[in-house]
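Standup notes, protein team

Yesterday: finished cleaning the Nesterenkonia jeotgali set.
Today: Transcriptional regulator, AbiEi antitoxin, Type IV TA system structure.
Blockers: none.

Input for Transcriptional regulator, AbiEi antitoxin, Type IV TA system:
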Amino acid sequence: MEPHRAEITLVRAELDARGLHTGTSLSRKVSQGSQLRIRRGVYVESQSWSAALPSHRYNASMAAVALAGSAGVFCRESALILHGLPLLKLPSEVHLRTLHRSQVGVHRTPGRLSYPTRLHEPPLPRGVTRAQLRAALAAGSAGALASENPGVSDPGVLGPGAPDAAASPGEPLTDGSPAGFARQILTPDCLRSFTADPAGLIVSVEPLPLALLDTVPRMPFDQAVVVLDAALARVAEAGVSVDEALRCWWPYLRGSRLQKNWTRAVVFADPRSASVGESLSRVRISELGFQAPELQNCLWVEGRRYWVDFEWDGIVGEFDGRHKYLRSQELFGISAEEALYREKRREDAIRSTGRRVVRWSWDDLHHPHALRDRLTRFGVPRA
């Protein structure tokens, strides 16, 4: 069973109504074990932190960075999460873009119980030098470089999202951010659930196109495909091509190796993949040398419509994640037993068409030899 999703409430150390600083009492609670210090001046109840899902702890760590007033812009994997894209692997650090080269590197928090913060230098587009960047910063604006900063004027089709579907989209910042330091301000709702006092909470994040181009080429191929499948699905909903969505941002993709990695991943990506498990399945199927399946085919059986994850000639492939059953009440409003019964009836209907049904799970994806043997037994054709 997965850990129970606990609520995490962050508390800042500050002056109370009597003029006393709460940091003293909070530090005392840390010594007693009832509180944890996960960022300098930011605390959380120990029990709720330990009981929370890892993804919830990571989001809370980003909120703690924002609450602590860290000067910078969330970037790379952290930005992708804030924009609502799924990741195959949770980052080991909170990623923050900084303008100060001396700060670049990994900075750990006092308690070392939250994710460390990795500070990055801002990427520069072709034709923009660090001298120009420094001059723009010294002038207090990006005047001469404004045309190089597409994030200031228009977030584009790949606009910001949030980890929580109820979060409101952000707005592009118009304060003259220098080139290579484009950012958007998300409404605090995207992280507000982690603090009882959201006043002054500012969530500054790289525009999604920049975060994609800066992050995806540096990822392992399977992780890159998971992100791009979801990003392309968002582009497809808007009815535009990926080239149109990213046209202003190509100068940030520097280096032949990164360009090659990007091209390989974006060519393989498919917006029809409906989940992280399905995206990873496509990668494993390709790596194991099987033919690429058709995705999300629709079957009509006795007047009912069934969508299947993968299909080869006469063979249906289905990825089975545990969430469909363990969280069926939360996701679909039905019990796990009812979800299992409905899935059995669905599979019976598919089999009645003469098709064979092969299923696999996360365990098979993490042990590709098991997936290879299973697909081979069911006669999935080789490439």
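Follow-up from PR in the comments: The chain has a mean pLDDT of 78.
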